[in-house]
Amino acid sequence: MIIETEHLIIRNFQKKDAVGLLEYLSQPRVNCFVSERLCSEESALAYISNSPKDMLRYAVCLKEDDFIIGDVFALREYTDTFSVGWHFNQRFEGKGLAHEAATKFLDYLFRKADARRVYGFVEDDNLRSKRLCERLGMRYEGCMKEFISFVCHPDGAPRYEDTCIYAILNKEWTEQREQNDGHARSEWKK
Fold first, then answer.
1. Residue of 63, 13, 10 whose CA lies nearest to 38
2. Between vectors from CA 100 to CA 94 and to CA 105, what angle results, nearest 5°?
3. pTM surpassing 0.85?
């Protein structure tokens, strides 16, 4: 699978991605990804070759040099429902690249993978990911208080996370994209 955007290529992982993958997964910034922490190039290579079979997971690379800056992933939960997520290298934040990648990935899920509903779990304190969901037009569906624990407090007691749910339906995505395309065409004509 290859998706090209203005600045990015979204593609299957390659062995050469191990160094870049290690750069952003050696210190996951949100607790839900602590279990995916990588500590060596070997662990990054294992991560690349051992993706769960029921998960779609793709590298997000800069178009100019094919360097991996993140990844997007989706787990099919029902025949037409996907849970989505993403990791991005902090070094490349603030440039709109995560939005560019996530937009094309959701578009792929709705147009090619027959998704009816796409949703994501976001920890309440992960402001960047919450903003990205909102920019994608995903609807805030609520917050589950003390939903899950990924890490422990210093005394060993579980530290429970408040987890938000964002979602969008295919019909909402399609309508939103058509409105954006129509607006872009009218701007172009001016």
1. 13
2. 135
3. yes
